[in-house]
UniProtKB/TrEMBL annotation:
EC nos: 2.3.2.23
Lineage, opening ranks: Eukaryota, Viridiplantae, Streptophyta, Embryophyta, Tracheophyta
Record has Protein biosynthesis as a keyword: no
PROSITE patterns membership: UBC_1 (PS00183), UBC_2 (PS50127)
Species of origin: Hibiscus trionum
Region (Disordered): 190-269
Record protein name field: E2 ubiquitin-conjugating enzyme
SMART domains: UBCc (SM00212)
Length: 269
């Protein structure tokens, strides 16, 4: 592979100037990229011209500069597969500008523009791809169908980055974080017995079943302030159930005392 050391200093200087111009003001439908360490290989992305079978395609090509450039023309190759009379199956480009019509005063800008124009107006008389050249002369519709097929398969441009993708992703992340925070709060409240969910219609009947018709139990349940639960009417079932448990615990010692008294009476007899 050639490097900048193989090119004369004055040629390197001229190429650097021209490449800068191509970068700052590129030709229509052409974007140039270059390796600063090796000016002998120039890459370019060419947009398929509108109204041609190559429309909506993006074709990558390269120019190879020899050690005696610009006295000898560069060699051009398409790296993207394309069905075209003047482009061989290996990608080699056949155009007079790069052959007999070459002039050392012609710059890279002129060469790239000529190559793109070749997509607009092929020259089947000097075809490197004989099938494409013959098809173009005999049946243009069939040629155009083949060219569009190649373009759709091999020259699809990379999808562009959506400007709204970041904001959409951020919004989705914020919604997920809010949902997670609400879920954590609900779980904490449920663990502490102060959940914010309203009681089901069966809650009062459950409480009354546990309490029965005991007036003391009803009085104890009615005297519990609703503000202790944070939401009116919430948590009454749990408190009533606790009171019933306490009442049941007090009955156990009483029954035990009665049994002990009966045992003592039997001993006396």
């Amino acid at each position: 592979m050639a490097t900048n050391e193989n090119l004369p200093p004055n040629v390197i200087k001229q190429l650097a100037k021209e490449l800068k111009s191509l970068d700052e003001s590129p030709p229509e439908g052409i974007k140039v990229s270059v390796n600063d360490d090796d000016f002998s290989i120039i890459y370019a992305d060419i947009e398929g011209p509108a109204g041609t079978p190559y429309e909506n395609g993006l074709f990558r090509m390269k120019l190879l500069l020899s050690h005696d450039f610009p006295h000898s023309p560069p060699k051009g190759y398409f790296l993207t597969k394309i069905f075209h009379p003047n482009i061989a199956t290996n990608g080699e480009i056949c155009v007079n500008t790069l052959k007999k019509d070459w002039n050392p005063s012609l710059g890279l800008r002129h060469v790239l523009i000529v190559v793109r124009c070749l997509l607009i107006e092929p020259f089947p008389e000097s075809a490197l791809n004989e099938q494409a050249g013959k098809m173009l002369l005999e049946n243009y519709d069939e040629y155009a169908r083949h060219a569009r097929l190649y373009t759709g398969i091999h020259a699809k441009p990379k999808p562009k980055f959506k400007s709204g993708a970041i904001s959409e992703s951020t919004t989705a992340l914020n919604v997920e974080q809010r949902n997670t925070s609400v879920l954590n709060v609900e779980q904490k409240n449920a663990a502490s017995g102060t959940g914010l969910s309203l009681p089901t219609p069966l809650a009062p009947s459950t409480a009354s079943t546990k309490g029965g018709n005991n007036p003391d139990h009803q009085h104890q349940q009615s005297t519990i302030p609703a503000t202790e639960t944070g939401v009116s009417g919430t948590g009454c079932v749990g408190i009533a159930g606790t009171a019933s448990k306490k009442e049941g615990l007090t009955k156990v010692p009483a029954d035990k005392k009665k049994m002990d008294a009966r045992k003592r009476s039997l001993k006396r007899l």
